Amino acid sequence: MANKINLSKTVYELIEEFPQLEKILSDLGFTEVTKKSMLNTVGKMITIPKGAEIKNIPMIDIISALMSNGFELVGEMPLDKISDDNPSVDNFNTRKEQLKDYLRRLGQGEDIESVRADFVKHFKDVDASEIMDAEQELLEEGTPLSEVQRLCDVHSALFHGKTIEENISSSENIDDEKQNTVEKDYSDKNKLAADLKKIKAHPLYTFAKENEALEILLDKYKEEKTIELFNKIRELSIHYAKKGDLLYPLLKVKYEISGPSDVMWTVDDEIRDELSSIAKTNRFDEDIKERVDAVFKRAEEMIYKEENILFPICAVNFTQDEWFGIYQDSKDYDECFGVEQEVWEEAENNKKAEIIELNDEIVMPGGHMTVEQMTAMLNTIPLEITFVDDKNINRYFNEGPKAFKRPGMAIDRDVFSCHPPKIEPMVRAIIEDFRNGTRDTVALWSEKAGKPMAVTYMAVRDKKGKYLGTMEIVQDMDFAKEHFQE
Description:
Elements: E1 3-6, H1 11-17, H2 21-28, H3 36-39, H4 48-55, H5 59-68, E2 71-74, H6 92-107, H7 112-122, H8 128-140, H9 145-150, H10 152-158, H11 164-169, H12 176-188, H13 193-196, H14 203-224, H15 227-233, H16 236-253, H17 259-280, H18 286-317, H19 320-330, H20 345-350, E3 361-364, E4 367-370, H21 371-380, E5 384-389, E6 394-397, H22 424-436, E7 441-448, E8 451-461, E9 467-476, H23 481-484
Parallel strand pairs: 1-2
Antiparallel strand pairs: 3-4, 5-6, 5-9, 7-8, 8-9
Helix pairs in contact: 6-7, 6-8, 8-18, 14-15, 14-18, 16-17, 17-18
């Protein structure tokens, strides 16, 4: 019996109904359907006939391919209507080009208020995914990453008050008819940030609570400008670390949404580095306070970008199981701004106990041990141990608290996706040297929470010298201080 395919449905709806359509459409020229970010945005607004019209793909070729794959066509071939108040894919590309032009103008030094005036004139609102797509396409077209990063704060300032996400929570900004349209678009996306933030202890609930606490501290600092408040606000490093370990890599690797990790992750690091640099001056005079004002302004912009760009993108894409995993991994991070890690009952109930046959033994040239013994021994060693295989995939982390967090969700993920952009080139260079035999070990020193940490990368080879992977060992060296102090 043939599968009945209704061409009046959107591409997203059809692929949800018939997953095999993804390859069929991709082979026909709809290559965007393989990109989760495009499928979850454009795919929810476009039909196959309209997509064929935009991409100049003959409908006869599409119909032939569908029928040869066992589909029976039903429904009409609708022509999507253009509406300024409810922009469809008919003007999606035009809107994106306009957004890119605004961003380019900012890059060329034009005053933000001048650009914003034109933006407000042509856009009643903008979706978070549109901002992300525009920035990501600029990168793909050759705009230097450093340029997009440099303008990251200015970009977000351009869109203040104009994202759909903001309009959802501020109905006074739009009329009733527009509100209904926005809410329909909102509900169509299933899991957007506004709903998830209402779930007690959900990761977005916790992230939002931390941002609320940070905003209060930043406002208080503007009035008092004390070193005590400055030091308290530095806890945002914990908040940023969670984003860097748990959100950015998942977006980049699984959903091919690289914009946040390429741009926002680097800005996070710049903010943390500047706060650390200021703290090391041991001064708090007027010159230092000017630097603090500047970096705190960037932190305020990052709150905006998280709430109106990053979190909605995560909400649209991440599955429930992925949120469960993020929740479990979040437990390994310190509390920040006094926001406690609450209990998400649904996630706790969903947690699956790993069943291991503890009687099975691992036999090695040096002896044999049970899985239970091997696990306990590796967890007892006072080191943080990571093993990455010869295909650059994370294969193992030992358990226990870690200075350098290793979320369980990173297992089976590309190791490079777990490092911020400024660190990734170094990691790639080290592993490549190990692979080609140029080096066997690299030792680095770092400071974490005021403690000296020895970080050693080692090539793992078999007896014949064949490269099997890379091991990273992290050791807290604070215990050794007394032996070297005079």
